[in-house]
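Working notes for the structural subgroup meeting. M.R. asked for a predicted model of this chain before we commit to crystallization trials. I am recording the input and output together here so anyone reviewing the notebook later can reproduce the run.

Input as submitted:
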Amino acid sequence: MQDNSLVTIICLCYNHEKYVVESLLSVIHQNYPFVELIIVDDFSKDQSVATILKWIKDYPQVQFIANETNLGSTKSFNKALKLAKGDFIIDLATDDVLLPNCVSLQLKAFKESPYKNLGIVYGNAELITENSAFDSYYFPVDSQKKTIEKRETGDIYLSVISGGNSICSVSSMVKKAVFDDLNGYDENLAYEDLDLWIRASRKYEVDFIDEILIQKRISTDSLGTHFFIKNDARSKKINFSTYLIIKKAITLNKSKIEHKAILKRMHFEMILAYKTADYKLLLKYVLLEIKQRFKIFFA
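Returned structure, recorded in token form:
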């Protein structure tokens, strides 16, 4: 890997008027110089577009796509991905903030990793509130800000499908070749990260950087909060996407061990479907588990 590899950072904005400039400046102020920035606004209802247009006057090299309708994160990202010239890709929400050495540490990990088929690197994140106050760390750390529990690296497919290995996707850098191989994000899904990690880890190795790379903002409207809301339309859409992801993952499995591992993930999702009163989804999981157990029995 050359030391002047181009990194494309795709910034997705939706109603981030309050935070978008800080996020974009965190890209511009990286201590690594070879960065391409592409911004996509997904038909924000606030003044995000006006804020971006005003900011971008000082940075004419930055590409900006303003969606005329709300397409969702997967389609919006893929639009930008088609324009990306970088060898490496970062997917950044414009309410999050990259720390100044994020890109350089990620590239260093790609360069120095012992894994020969490395497709993704990721690190830790500092969680901050809507008012930018410190909350916690994504992975618990010691007094030296190093993770307390060792992260699994290399071939992590089994742990990803079982749900045993949580991934800090906001701190990740992905080889452009991986996205090209996987045809970007699946546009049929309401969210992207779990599907990407499953499909990518099936074919590529993953490494971990034991550093804080990004500030991830926790908000009342963030995606993570909507997995657990009872009788909520967005929650149902998101959790149905997880069901589709699990069905896809089953087709990627190659052994009885992997078929058994995904049952753990399914059981978690079944409990979630029950707690959110999504009984149609729960029935789908019950039927899927029956099929999966037959597959294991006759494997």
